[in-house]
Amino acid sequence: MYPRVVIDQKKLYENTKIVVDKAKEKGVNVHVVTKVHSADIKLAQVCLDAGAYGIADSRIKNLKKLESLKCEKILLRLPMHSEVDEVIALADISFNSELSTIKLLDVAAAKANKKHRIIVMFDLGDLREGFLPEEVDQVIPEILKCDHIVIEGIGVNLTCYGGVIPTHDNLSELERLANHIENTYHIKLNVVSGGNSSSLYLLDGSDLPSRINNLRIGEGIVLGREAAYGEQIEGTNDDAFILEAQLIEYKTKASMPKGIIGMDAFGNKPVFEDKGMIKRGIVAVGRHDVDHGALIPIDSRITILGASSDHLILDFTAAQEEYEVGDIVQFKMEYGAMLRLFTSEYVDREYR
């Protein structure tokens, strides 16, 4: 059935191995981020087979899907108060930046007769989650009072919200915090987690501080690309995942709508370019399923004009008569497109 995502498991394995091996050379282990494919257990296992140290996901429901995998599991998104029992049951480690949540995790862990490990997150400028560095001596003593919480390490998230690129300078601040915590509180931090796929470019030089020993990698594995500058990682594949959608209409029509232009189905007023009569095609996938702005037609003669909920409108003018209704159109995709495709129940998966 279409639309579907076609997954080349060999290429995914190759991408994972290249990234994992590159990281290992710098003394860094990799947790593969599984949210991009909605915690598909087959694909998570491929990455583990290729050498990933463990898995990381932002959703507790996704960790539930992967419960049977024998590996370390991290909950990336800060736990909600309402899910602390599930966090203790399903995550070996969780990322945290709120004392109230950590104290609830402590209670839940005591109830389950467990010790729960946490990564204490610090905000180094990207303005997403994390304690401020100057709060370190307020929060660490409070966490150490929790009998069933173990401070496994500290971490940072960069790029995802504020676009701040990981550098030697800001990651050295994380290293400084790690050294301060260990020297002041006489505890050992096993993990200093230096970010996500935007930190991968630092593996190629000498700018990665020596104490950074963990990265959480999603985009770098599924697309083979570092996320700071968007450069392809040498030897990786950018086509391990391909969207295939079927052509359901193929006609010559005007490039400009006829009539008074109001709002579209999403509350926006569209703007059109007058190109005269063009060959327009519709494929059966839409904004309900995918971020169409993050799709790349494999046939470079095709351009994306726009999308409604269930229809993707394409310009086939440069391809002329080479297509007909029923044909399959293929797309590479950016991270955002893949993220949405895998959460749509209307998009099938084919494993090769």
UniProtKB/TrEMBL annotation:
Residue ranges of every copy of the Alanine racemase N-terminal domain listed in the record: 7-221
GO MF annotations, alphabetized: ornithine racemase activity
Keyword flag Chloroplast: no
EC number of the protein: 5.1.1.12
Gene3D superfamilies for this protein: Alanine racemase (3.20.20.10)
InterPro entries cross-referenced by the UniProt entry: Ala_racemase, Ala_racemase_N, PLP-binding_barrel
SUPFAM superfamilies: PLP-binding barrel (SSF51419)
Cofactor requirements of the protein: pyridoxal 5'-phosphate
Keywords: Isomerase, Pyridoxal phosphate
CDD domains (alphabetical): PLPDE_III_AR_like_1 (cd06815)
Pfam hit, one: Ala_racemase_N
UniProt cross-references to PANTHER family, sorted A to Z: ALANINE RACEMASE (PTHR30511), LYSINE RACEMASE (PTHR30511:SF3)
Protein name: Ornithine racemase Orr
Originating gene: orr
